[in-house]
Structure to design on (607 residues):
């Protein structure tokens, strides 16, 4: 498993459209993606689950990927969050 | 000549009118409901696909959210689950959209709540992408009582149109040769307040278009070609103006309070139930989740119980363990209810664990697990021990209830209350066993009189025991929807009655009138 930690920097936080970008990117990888803040981890490929984290600007996200492409997945997803969900983050 | 047909009560309510036999243009091709959903998902996904970036940023943002939902296991996965449970694709999409919207709203985050229209719009796209309603469904041109061999919920929906805006009701009642109370057609009929009788033998041979009919959905009875006196009596007893009920509140304000709760058949009906204004869920029959030969696993079951508990917080929820459909000619005497639960231990434990998981996950839930067809106090005390052994949540485990459907259970009510926090009297079975007359046999149905002194003698015992022990006593079954009976139940010490979705408003009005 590869884990990464990244801080949400954009003003709106992990709102629905940002979460959709995250999901879209996560879904391009074969690894499972789990994300958590304070509570239990949620499925990083589920929009509803991710948005329920209510991650605002300044929140620390813990991203855990597991599978054949876990290192790339974790790096790309952390980069996307760090870019304020602007980056393309192509794998 | 007047004839009476006895079928199976599917949805309560009464209606008088002319028969209209549904014309069928051959057998309509019925695509598999699962196929429908997948086809709709593919069509919408294609429409949302925008490889060249032609859309502006706003549209692209909405589309990316909708695309993500289409692949979201918690959205489309849920719709697939509902389809696998037997819902139509249309109902499953509605269900999944509602749950997603509720979830966004529950976050109390204005940004998320503001995106609800995008989610609803996706639902509309999916519904539009579903195939049109099956061909061959005609519409009547005047108010009628619909008569058919069989009718799917989808077809009934096509005939009724959407629930809002309200429109003149062309279908006053539904009579089917097949179908039973657990079908989705029956659930839809109950939700829309439409009387329905199913399982009427030789219906199409005995009723033709234009025949005069009286329908009593609550008793599963149909009168064909009634004489004028019968029609007058039927109209006089009409549903809204209940017989013998005077609005002046004769014994009015002194009567104790009694709650009106609601019966439902599927967790997804909880939102309809909430809208009725009832005081809580008096009875969730889980038989629709756990049909014979189809048993969802513990997490799948728990998820549906959790959804139901969260969807209506702050009220009591009484969920009944699987009550096996009665086989054979003596339905009440075989391995039903708790007897079946004992014989099928692994399925029983799966359901119990799922209910306990749900109670643990929704810590402020007021959940009672209800045991059907109890006949011995030991059956309840054993189950209580089982709950204690398996409960892993913080705080006390959920409450335990017992159905009083056998005379034995009513007679040993004191011992029953040693282990049970609540009892729910099922008056239909209790009366049938008490007088020894089958509910299925019209030749003896006349003996099943809810005014029978023996029944009231037992109800008095139950009410007194509940009052003395400070426990909850409730009545389900036909008696619960009879305002005269409710008045008597309240004075006997009963705390609540539980009635079908379509009956809540009427019974509440009667109860309130009495109080005022």
């Amino acid at each position: 498993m590869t884990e990464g930690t990244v801080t949400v920097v954009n003003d709106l936080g992990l709102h629905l459209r940002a979460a959709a970008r995250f999901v879209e990117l996560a879904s391009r990888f074969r690894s499972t993606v789990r994300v958590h803040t304070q509570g239990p981890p949620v499925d990083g490929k589920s929009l509803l689950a991710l948005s329920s984290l209510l991650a605002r600007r300044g929140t620390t996200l813990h991203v855990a990927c597991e599978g054949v492409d876990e290192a790339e997945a974790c790096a790309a997803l952390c980069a996307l969050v760090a870019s304020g969900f602007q980056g393309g983050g192509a794998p | 000549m007047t004839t009476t047909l006895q079928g199976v009560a599917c949805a309560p309510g009464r209606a008088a009118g002319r028969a209209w036999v549904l014309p069928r243009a051959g057998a309509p091709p019925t695509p598999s409901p699962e196929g429908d959903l997948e086809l709709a998902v593919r069509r919408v996904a294609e429409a949302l696909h925008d490889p060249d970036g032609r859309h502006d940023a706003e549209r692209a943002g909405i589309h990316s959210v909708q695309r993500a939902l289409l692949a979201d296991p918690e959205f489309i996965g849920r719709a697939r689950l509902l389809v696998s449970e037997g819902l139509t694709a249309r109902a499953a999409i509605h269900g999944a959209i509602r749950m997603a919207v509720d979830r966004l709203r529950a976050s109390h985050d204005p940004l998320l709540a503001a995106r609800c229209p995008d989610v609803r719009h996706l639902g509309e796209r999916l519904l539009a992408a579903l195939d049109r309603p099956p061909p061959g469904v005609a519409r009547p041109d005047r108010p009628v009582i619909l008569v058919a061999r069989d009718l799917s919920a989808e077809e009934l929906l096509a005939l009724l149109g959407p629930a809002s805006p309200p429109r003149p009701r062309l279908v006053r009642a539904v009579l089917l040769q097949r179908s039973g109370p657990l079908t989705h057609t029956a659930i839809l009929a109950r939700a829309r307040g439409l009387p329905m009788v199913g399982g009427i033998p030789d219906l199409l041979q005995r009723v033709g278009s234009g025949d005069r009919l009286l329908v009593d959905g609550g008793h599963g009875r149909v009168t064909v070609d009634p004489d004028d006196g019968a029609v007058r009596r039927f109209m006089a007893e009409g549903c809204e103006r209940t017989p013998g009920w005077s609005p002046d509140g004769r014994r009015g304000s002194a009567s104790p309070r009694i709650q009106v709760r609601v019966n439902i058949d599927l967790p997804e009906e909880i939102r309809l139930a909430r809208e009725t204004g009832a005081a809580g869920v008096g009875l969730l029959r889980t038989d629709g989740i756990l049909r014979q030969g189809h048993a969802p696993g513990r997490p799948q079951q728990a998820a549906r119980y959790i959804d139901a508990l969260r969807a209506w917080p702050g009220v009591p929820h009484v969920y009944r363990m699987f009550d096996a459909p009665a086989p054979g000619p003596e339905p009440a005497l075989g391995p039903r209810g708790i007897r079946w639960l004992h014989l099928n231990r692994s399925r029983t434990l799966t359901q119990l664990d799922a209910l306990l998981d749900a109670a643990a996950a929704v810590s402020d839930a007021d959940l009672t697990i209800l045991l059907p067809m109890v006949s011995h106090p030991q059956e309840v005390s054993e189950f209580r021990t089982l709950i204690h052994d398996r409960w892993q949540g913080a705080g006390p485990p959920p409450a335990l209830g017992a159905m009083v459907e056998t005379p034995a259970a009513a007679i040993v009510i004191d011992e029953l209350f040693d282990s049970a926090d609540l009892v729910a009297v099922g008056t239909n079975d209790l009366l049938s066993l008490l007088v020894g007359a089958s509910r299925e046999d019209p030749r003896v149905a006349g003996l099943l009189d809810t005014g029978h002194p023996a029944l009231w003698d037992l109800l008095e015992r139950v009410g007194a025991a509940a009052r003395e022990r400070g426990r909850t006593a409730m009545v389900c079954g036909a008696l619960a929807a009879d305002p005269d009976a409710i008045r008597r139940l309240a004075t006997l010490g009963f705390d609540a009655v539980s009635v079908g979705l379509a009956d809540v408003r009427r019974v509440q009005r009667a109860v309130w009138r009495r109080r005022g």
Notes: Helices of chain A lie at 16-26, 47-51, 70-82. Chain A has three helices and four strands. The CA atoms of residues 8 and 57 of chain A lie 5 Å apart.
